[in-house]
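note to self — DONT lose this again. spent like an hour looking for the file last time. sequence + predicted structure for the chain T wanted, 136 res
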Amino acid sequence: MARLLALDYGTKRTGIAVTDELQIIASGLTTVNTSELLTFLKQYTSKESVEKIIVGLPKQMDNTASESEVYIQKFLRKLDSEIPNISIERFDERFTSKMAFQSMIDSGLSKKKRQNKALVDEISATLILQSYMSSL
């Protein structure tokens, strides 16, 4: 089997999470500057077998698209043209940032570490991936 990879896309940084090859466990991988995301993904997918990329779908409470969806759509077009052999799926990401922050509190991380937005993005990507896997 191949890995699943999830993205919590942001205009500045993107959190990335992956599964193991058996697609049992979701783990945070890293956070990269969004300007370097495509390069990172091309390098990662050339070394690792990835079956699918799950990209967070940000929605408002009334189920309309978030403002960031415009940027995500632009990125998705580039991603599909640069890495056409890996399917892309969207998954609702509402509340993942709040849940990530709460999980940091629950795990006892210091206030200074909880202010690390890159860590929040990575945990958010992991939550997107875990939720996606649970929905299957």
